Hints:
There is one protein chain. Helices cover 79% and strands 1% of the residues. The mean pLDDT is 84. The chain has 13 helices and two strands.
Amino acid sequence: xxTLTNSVFLGPTIVLFGLFFILPMGMLVISSFSGxxxxxxxNYLQILVNxxxxxxxFSSFVLSVVIxxxxxxxxGVVAFFLARVDFAGKNLFMTLIAFPASLPGVVxxxxxxxxxxxxxxxxxxxxxxxxxxxxxxxxxxxxxxFAYLYFMIPKIVMTIYGSVVEFDVRLEEAARTVGANEQQxxxxxxxxxxxxxxxxxxxxxxxxxxGAFGTAFTLANQFEILPxxxxxxxxxxxxxxxxxxxxxxxxxxxxxxxxxxxxLLERE
Length: 268
């Protein structure tokens, strides 16, 4: 009976997995090796040798790494504060922190334009004060940097917060009984214990930054990152093979990072 029940659920699962994962991925891989004359490696080679593609790859990778590092530091401090300190309005404060995570990327992009665009609130305010429009960087790499931070920090704060709340404070107290001060207890006991969730949070941040499109589409007018290059190749240049290769490269980078994070967690 149990075998029959498993078979009933296994069949639809295999069909759905094939239709929504294996088939699209297979078509994407085939397309990435397709050119005007059939099979080709040019779609992948151009990512390495063509300056436009290599710059976009470098920009995407560096941006994702920097966003991940900054997000982890800020989110870790905020999550630790929220988990350890009680204050009036804490629930409201946490709700406000979580709010940006629910916004679409395009909305976040327009918010950055409203604040830091050429006629944004900040440039207009600084022009009134000093006569110079300062802070007009919405369409530069700094614009997308702050946009990514805006919607990334809430996700990572909530990810880390739960683990900090569940942390066994007796371990920290034991460290203090043997002479460790508060900072030493945090750095040598609390943080090492939270390494698994920190690694997971770093992976989430990197994946999202590497593949985010809506915010980049709104702001990336003065530079290109891989998702934007993929979009323009597919919709404007009709280079389907090139766009497919970029999608595969993004996927391979994220899968490789996922494997690395799992290896680190297994060692822990």
